[in-house]
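Thanks for the sequence, V.! I ran Sugar ABC transporter permease right away. Repeating your input here for the record:
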Amino acid sequence: MTTTGAETVIAPTRVRTAADSATVRRKQGFQHGGWFVTPFLVLFALFVIWPLLRGLYLSFTDANISGDGANLIGLDNYREALDDPLVWESLGHSAYFTLLVVPCITVLAFLLAMLAHHIERGKWLWRLCFFMPFLLPSTVAANLWQWLFNPGTGMVNHVFGIETPWLNDKSYAMLAVVICTLWWTVGFSFLLYLAALQGIPGHLYEAARLDGANAWHRMVHITLPMLRNITGLVVALQILASLQVFDQAVVMMDFLPGPEGSTRTFVQYTLEEGFTSYRVGYASAISIIFFLIIAAVALARMWLLRNREEGGR
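Predicted structure:
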């Protein structure tokens, strides 16, 4: 195509003008939107970034709870943490709790969501009953189940006709915390599954029913595949939350580490070192190690999700 000299000069000018206009609009949008995100960024920096940086600095010192006499000691706190048997024991308790809670809560939330989704009468009541415990504060839920598991007056032993020392035996103490957690937190995952079930197109089930698929086949070949993403989200959130278990375990055991330390979690041990032994520097090192573990789990989840999405294309 032939063009005149005037056209050759004008065309780039028009393109450059359009690009400049888009840049101006983006800058104006950022300037206006920046006022809305600034309060969040300030609070995020104040309550997340600054404590993280402060904790990282303290992990290289021998600081105590008073903050006086903090001397740099390099990696000594980290070396001690790696050789501390209670660090590994508490981490094992947190991992054990996570292995018990995550599969159970995922399956239970799915079954409750299926029930609430397909039941016809009293649907709102079922949804309310399943979600209501999640609205309770952690201390209320833990105190409630502490009473239910009481060996002498608790309803659990009375109803089932057993004499299990739930809170006084290391073989049952963590199981009691798991049961409390399932009852208390299943409502959140239940709500996610219920919302996902309502988003599955009904014509898929109609087509499968016309093809002769029974209820089991419809669930296996339609429901579960359509819920794959939400299941991954539930599992990831529950892993991150379970690794940080603290409230219910501490309250149910009257702020003690349980029989023979069987319910001492990683977070609880960190607080014990920081506020009971007054070793803030050492507690900061333990918390940084725990932060790295949580970050590794989150990054692994993101990597697996990205690989699955790329493999599905």
